[in-house]
Structures are given as structure tokens and as C-alpha cells.
What we know:
Blueprint: E1 4-9, H1 16-33, E2 36-41, H2 46-56, E3 62-64, H3 69-78, E4 85-88, E5 101-104, H4 116-122, E6 130-135, H5 138-153, E7 160-164, H6 169-178, E8 183-187, H7 190-200, E9 206-209, H8 216-221, E10 229-232, H9 251-270, H10 275-284, E11 287-289, E12 292-294, E13 308-315, E14 318-325
Amino acid sequence: MALRAVAAISLSGRHAAAGRQAAAGLDAWAGLAGARLRVEDDRSDPAETARLYGQLASGADIVFGPYGSGAARAAARALASSLTPVWNHGGAALDRPVAARFIDVLGAAERYWQGLAHALHHDGVDLNRVVIVHADSGFGRATAEGARRALQAAGTEPLAVIKRGEGLREAAFEAALRAGPSCVVGCCGIDDDLALGRRLAGAGPAVGLVVCGVGLAAQRLGAAIAGWLGPSQWWPGGPPLPVDLGPGADYPAAQALAAGLVAQQALELAGSSAPEAVWQAALGLRTRTFLGPFAVDGDGRQTAHAPALVRWVRRRGRLFREAAWLPDGAPARA
């Protein structure tokens, strides 16, 4: 009998671009696995996410989480009394422990900038003058703290850490530039990171933005991003995939595909889709996908994998990403 898999993902609303990518990745996995996949649109609304997971979780062999950390937290609240494992491919800033049984396949938000000091040192950037700008959100705080820890591990501290308050986006950007940075690291949502990128274009400092991990950065910011850094679970031209995700595929699609592959292995190891058996199998599973190694702790938190850092380069009139740092700890030279 074919595996039955479900997910609620943003196919419309503010997170639709990434959500559709994630849905495409799950669909590609379902094609490989011969699984029956049902994806419902949560409309980028956490309340709708919670409602849908309350309905979808029972009766499925595999439950995939939504895209986005806010949506993942909503789903976790809705499933707090459920024993069903949820395969988390899109919620990088999910606080642990949570009552629901979430299993991370993607690298955690606090590890997004793990290679920051390595990549900046390679580029000749003064590590003592790095300014971090972050959103006042769970994801923003987690990625900013990860960037701070990466600098601390290199023996320095950020020149400034600036919180982007509600309605104060431009003020935060100007404060970052007034600090006299060698580099500005943006730890915000897509819209804020793009706005920060527009303000920094041609301003002088080196730039790292979370949004620079995806192709959308080049589409919206153009040639200005040459040399800029971003964290990425996977990128076109990176590790080969087991199936073609189609033109324009990016890491939201790839990490969803990886979640399907790991979930399928856990079910095979468990020998059934019984929630307790799958949960225990997932906790004991040690494997590897094109994203990198997979292992989780007793709370389902990914412990083996950190995203790579990519650098945008321009050659022959074309912008593309190449590895600037890989999570084995060694910088990857351009």
C-alpha cells in the first residue's frame, strides 16, 4: 500500500514563494516514493496552519511540517497532545523542547551563520567591525545570536547588534551604517533583508543577508549582490539531487525533498508507521542526504547539520552562487 503523507504549506499569502517551493520538493519526493501526498494551503496564516494540522495529522503515515518558523510553532501548538512525529523541513527557529514531536531535517537558525568568521576572514574583512541587524522575532534573534557566536569563536565581538523595531526599519539601517562597519549581517525576514540590501548597495561594507541564500536575492537586488554572503541548506550547482526539481528550484524545495527521504528511512527502520515506533526510529537514525548528515537529539533537534555559506559571484554577465564555507569547518575557496 502506498504511503500516505500530508502537509499544510503556504501556497498563497506572504510566504507563498518559498511555500510553493517546499510543496514542489514534497511532490518530487512523493513521485520517487510512490506515495500519496496531500498538501493544503495555510494561506500564510498561523491560525489556519494550526487548524489544518488539527485535521490532517490523524490517519497519515507521514506528517510534514509547514514552511516558516511561525507556522511551525503554530503547528506544534496544535499537535501538543499528539504522539505523531512531524518532519520539520521549513521551521528553522522552533524552540525546544516542544510538546509536539517535531524532527528537524534542516539546520537550525542559530547555526545559519556558523561559518561567518571563516568566510569574512577569507575575504579580508575586519572581524572587529561587524554589525548585526536583526528582526525582533524568534528567527531574527536566533540567527543573530548564531552570527554573534561565530564571531566570538574567532575571538571577537560584533561592533554592534541592532534590533529592527516595529516601524523602525530605516532607523535600524541608518544606525548600522553610522557605526562604521566593515560588514553588515542581516538577520531578518525576506522583505526586511531585501530592503537592507537596497540600502547597502554601493555603500561600502561587505554584506551578508539571510535572503542571499536564495535566488530571489539576485532577482530583486541585481548585480549589487556580487560578493555578498548568505546561508543555504542547498543551492543550484551544489550537491547533486536524486531527482530534478525543475527550473528555479531552490533550498526550500531541496530541504523538503530531503525531509521526505529521511522520513521514509525512519519508517523503514521502524517497520511500521506506528507513531511511537517511528519516533524512536527517528531518534536513533544516523544517515546522510544531499543536505549533509542527519542526527537528532532526544527532543528531535538536528545536531549534525549546519547550512553552508554561499557567495554571489558575477561571471560572463551572469550571477550565481558558489560555496564560501562548508559545514565541515573548512572555508571553500572561490
